[in-house]
């Protein structure tokens, strides 16, 4: 049933619209414009890597997707449905279809890995603890942490904590998962284990938007690389073209620094 009252994100929209579509999006913080007239879309199942210098608006761009920030102008459509006017239940509904993985993990320190992963299923979806725990166990297995279900965040390494955070983001079966520099807070020896989980996810068909400085991830796993600077998308290309022949001078300068 397609009607204006249909849930935003779980009902297939007509004509297989993109998973995410920005139309002329602006974002201001006070007088300061941090996103300027951005048109951008992500296809279903696509893996997009976003890179660019610090302060270029990457975090703001992905926080706008799940309404952690609201647009100042323009519109963001998720699966073809406008989102800027959503409030209350409709907004919560949208968010359950979008997973978010933060740089600093943002796990609940007083909850075990198992409870971190199952919390939203119990609190938001009304699942019984037993059913939620069963699903959380499966997800912890999937990220290689089947033996750590009863550990608390402080008892886990950074890489393990981030894998718990990924399992948590998957708990509600999102169709889209957003990552904001998921490996930037990790010691170098832990980056690989998190990238490996992300690589497996990428192959599972879920749509992913990943802000990252890991150029190996962008190059080997992403379908498309987006380069931002000054709140503007300056260049978008397939990884091979972007890394071998970046067009914009600022993208070339950025790559000279990070590669
Ligand atoms: P990036 O993730 O690329 O480093 P951000 O999206 O975090 O960039 O920030 C883009 C710009 O917006 C920066 O100038 C930053 O200082 C500003 N900014 C981000 N969040 C806020 C906020 N909540 N209030 C005011 N300014 C912000
Ligand atoms: Mg950021």
From TrEMBL:
Bilayer-spanning residue ranges: none
Q: How does it sit in the membrane?
A: Peripheral membrane protein
Domain ABC transporter residue range list:
20-255
Where does the source fall among the domains of life? Bacteria
PROSITE patterns, per this entry? Answer: ABC_TRANSPORTER_1, ABC_TRANSPORTER_2
Q: Where in the cell is it found?
A: Cell inner membrane
Q: Recorded GO terms, molecular function? A: ABC-type amino acid transporter activity; ATP binding; ATP hydrolysis activity
What's the main place this protein lives? membrane
A Pfam family (short name) is ABC_tran
Q: Which UniProt keywords apply?
A: Amino-acid transport, ATP-binding, Nucleotide-binding, Transport
InterPro entries tied to this protein: AAA+_ATPase, ABC_ATPase_HisP-typ, ABC_transporter-like_ATP-bd, ABC_transporter-like_CS, MetN_ABC_transporter-like, P-loop_NTPase
Q: Show the GO cellular component annotation of the record.
A: plasma membrane
| Similarity comment text for this entry | Belongs to the ABC transporter superfamily.
Q: Which protein is depicted? A: ATP-binding cassette domain-containing protein
């Amino acid at each position: 049933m397609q009607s204006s009252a249909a849930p935003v994100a779980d009902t297939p929209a007509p004509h297989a619209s993109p998973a995410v579509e920005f139309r002329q999006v602006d974002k201001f913080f006070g007088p300061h414009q941090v996103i300027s007239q951005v048109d951008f879309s992500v296809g279903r199942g696509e893996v997009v890597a976003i890179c660019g210098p610090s302060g270029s608006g990457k975090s703001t761009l992905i926080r706008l997707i799940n309404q952690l920030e609201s647009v100042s102008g323009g519109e963001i459509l998720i699966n073809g449905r406008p989102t800027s006017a959503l409030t209350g239940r409709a907004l919560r509904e949208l968010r359950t279809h979008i997973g978010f993985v933060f740089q600093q993990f943002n796990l609940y320190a007083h909850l075990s890995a198992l409870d971190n992963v199952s919390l939203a299923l119990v609190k938001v979806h009304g699942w019984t603890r037993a059913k939620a725990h069963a699903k959380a166990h499966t997800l912890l297995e999937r990220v290689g942490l089947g033996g750590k279900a009863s550990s608390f965040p402080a008892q886990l390494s950074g890489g393990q904590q981030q894998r718990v955070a990924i399992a948590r983001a998957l708990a509600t079966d999102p169709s889209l998962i957003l990552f904001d520099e998921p490996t930037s807070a990790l010691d170098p020896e832990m980056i690989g284990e998190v990238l490996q989980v992300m690589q497996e996810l990428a192959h599972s068909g879920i749509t992913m938007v990943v802000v990252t400085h890991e150029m190996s991830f962008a190059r080997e796993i992403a379908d498309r690389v987006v380069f931002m600077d000054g709140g503007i998308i300056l260049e978008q290309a397939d990884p091979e073209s972007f890394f071998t022949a970046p067009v914009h001078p600022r993208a070339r300068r950025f790559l000279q620094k990070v590669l």
